[in-house]
Amino acid sequence: MDLLFGLLTGVLFGFLLQRGQVLRYDMQLGALRLKDMTIVKFMLSHIMVAMVGIYLLNDLGLVKLSLKATVVGANALGGLIFGLGWGLVGYCPGTSLGAVGEGRLDALAAIAGMLVGAGIFARAYDGLLPTVYTWGDYGKITLAGVLGVNHWLVIAVLLIAFVLILRWIERKGL
Amino acid sequence: MARQAKGWSPYLAGALSGLVSVGSVWVAGKYLGASTTFVRGAGMAERLYAPDAVATLAYYLKEKPVIDWQFLFVLGIALGAFIAAKATGDFKVQLVPDTWRARFGDGVGLRALAAFVGGAVAMFGARLADGCPSGHGLSGMSQLAVSGYLAGAGFFAGGILMARLLYRGK
């Protein structure tokens, strides 16, 4: 059943990624070159809806959060390394498969590279555990928890901030 | 611009994808993510020629080479994108993206090499950060996870830096 839900969710998500035109190298580089913010519009719209929906269902006791641990060293350094690679490949792991789906076959080389990267990481993992993974390990924390305020206050502030960012992007014609 | 002609508004597609995400968490208890699947995929491939590595490396023991919810989710993305592209006449086989061609020419090999190397570096970083723009960027930021905002900032900082290096002055 899990597998069926996975496939169905993937098909819906892939359909919307394609319709939102965010699967292309040109769009991802457009954002990284600060010339076309289509993917930022897609991501922030997604986050705004999901943030409200997930916390509403969580407050009603219908879903559980699944937080990834905050390890400042690993999150920030890994994030930066991901970004450097992303600027070169122009696809992220999820969109690489979608890009192949709409005919962008350079994404096949990207997928091959990503598999090799995962294999290299599996070999580096043991050496990283006692180092990067211990730098700033705070466990599973949220912005609301860190600030010591109600999560709806944080959500309200983020919603306003995201709307202002998107308005600014539209004004600039990005 | 021409790109607006054939697609949906990114706001609409993004918001609907947010609903898909909420539905997935509600119905299946699963948060969207993609990069763990590449570890499982690599493990499956390595089992064919380096079974010892798969059986002993701690990371492959942590993320076992099995087909799970996320594996099917990632494959589903390709299928969903294919259906959407075919249904709307947007499907087009292309080996070199337009932006890349304008800067680096239409060499298929050079583009494939860059995509391969970039993909490897990106995946190494994603696994170190414990997520990609789906797991950290969408699911993490939606849950207000500090890790999501940290990693998300890193993704864009590194990406903007690399884009500057590649497209300097263009």
Describe this protein's structure.
The complex is a heterodimer of chains A (174) and B (170). Chain A has 174 residues and is mainly α. Chain A is built from eight helices and two strands. Chain A has helices at residues 2-19, 25-32, 38-59, 72-89, 93-101, 106-128, 143-147, 151-171; strands at 70-71, 137-139. Chain A has a two-stranded antiparallel ribbon. The radius of gyration of chain A is 18 Å and the shape is globular. Chain A starts with a helix and ends with a helix. With 170 residues, chain B is mostly helical. Chain B has two domains: 8-92, no CATH class; 94-169, no CATH class. Chain B has helices at 2-6, 10-28, 35-49, 51-56, 58-62, 69-87, 98-104, 108-129, 133-142, 146-166. In chain B, helix 9 (133-142) packs across helix 10. Chain B starts with a helix and ends with a helix. The relative contact order of chain B is 0.09. The interface between A and B is large, with 126 and 132 residues. Chain B: Its main location: membrane. Chain B: The chain crosses the membrane at residues 12-29, 69-87, 108-126, 146-167. Chain B: One of its GO terms (cellular component) is plasma membrane. Chain B: Belongs to the TsuA/YedE (TC 9.B.102) family.
Summarize, please.
With 174 residues, chain A is mainly α. Chain A contains eight helices and two strands; from the N terminus they run αααβαααβαα. The mean pLDDT of chain A is 97.
Secondary structure layout plus pairing:
The complex is a heterodimer of chains A (174) and B (170).
Chain A (H helix, E strand, L loop, with lengths): L1 H18 L5 H8 L5 H22 L10 E2 H18 L3 H9 L4 H23 L8 E3 L3 H5 L3 H21 L3
Antiparallel strand pairs in A: 1-2
Helix pairs in contact in A: 3-8, 5-6
Chain B lengths: L1 H5 L3 H19 L6 H15 L1 H6 L1 H5 L6 H19 L10 H7 L3 H22 L3 H10 L3 H21 L4
